[in-house]
Amino acid sequence: MRLTSYIKKIAIHTASACLIAGSSVAMAATDGANKLNELLQGYDSFSAKFEQVTLAENGREAQKTEGSLLLAKPNRFRWETQQPFPQEIVSDGEYIWIYDPDLEQVTQRAADTQQDSAPALILNGQIGELQKTYAVRLVEDTGSEQIFDLKPKSDQYSFSRIRLAFAGNVISELMLEDSLGQRTSVVFAEQTLNPEVTNQSFYFRVPEGTDVIVDIEE
Length: 218
What we know:
outer membrane lipoprotein receptor (LolB), chain A
């Protein structure tokens, strides 16, 4: 813990107390990561309905969407938005398909381009990898509800803050804030741990007449 000039001038026993407090903060961070890991390791697949709200820097609602999520570790998911505009984002573990029916267009990307993103690491339960770039802190634990705060270890990452909320040991909200102050909150409902999934659950068939844009680096 870096001491400020006035701390250096106070009595030895007070300085010692500060060092003990610093150790407690480090321990709390470790406990927070362990607790988050415990919660996210409790399932191999996950499904839920969601409502996603994006707020601009001034606090005004910029966008609101509703849809459903189906996920299977590692790196397979189907994110479907129904309102206000339909969209499908499907990952089969090898490729990610982003389909916009209104545009009759689908973009194909390599799945590994998203594997180091914070939301992907969180939902996949890869807390060890997440800790390489984010400090994890448990800020509230009532027994039935937990709230975690994640801060990046440098300013080069996409999000300046991430907050996770759990209710009954199941994720209930994921909040992401970027460096410009834009905040996106994803609230989950009707969550199911370990729903039955198959390879077909994450298979994407390109609809007839749809343009395919391949965005894959060689």
